[in-house]
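Hey team,

Sharing the Reverse transcriptase Ty1/copia-type domain-containing protein run so nobody has to redo it. Sequence (131 residues) first:
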Amino acid sequence: MRDLHYFLDIEVTRSSSCKYIRDLLGRTNLANAKSVHTPMINASILAKDDGDHLDDPTEYRSLTGAFQYVVLTQSDIAYVVNRVCQFIHAPTTIHLVALKRILRYLRGTLNYGLVFRPFDRLSLVAYADAN
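Structure output:
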């Protein structure tokens, strides 16, 4: 198959810039970390009482918020971001490990993502089912 350029009137381009993700990796000292192929282990079940509670959950909360922004351009991490956000009120060391695995996954997928560009012709189409 050839490279995708347009899909549902959205322009798709490949870009290796990913400055936002690179900044996240640098902030967490994972810029040179080994990447992983999946954002979460399949057998991994996160629970609220797994591990020790973090003394300062500020970094955890900041990263989960940043991931919610990254989901807009890399929808493949939407499920795992939802999972780690469920523990934002009382994160543990196990949850932080899961968060760092997502970062390691993003490290290996820096050239993935969606690019949204403005388009000069706006066309709004709506459908309704009267039933």
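The helical segments are 19-27, 58-70, 78-85, 93-108.

Ping me if you want the raw files.
A.
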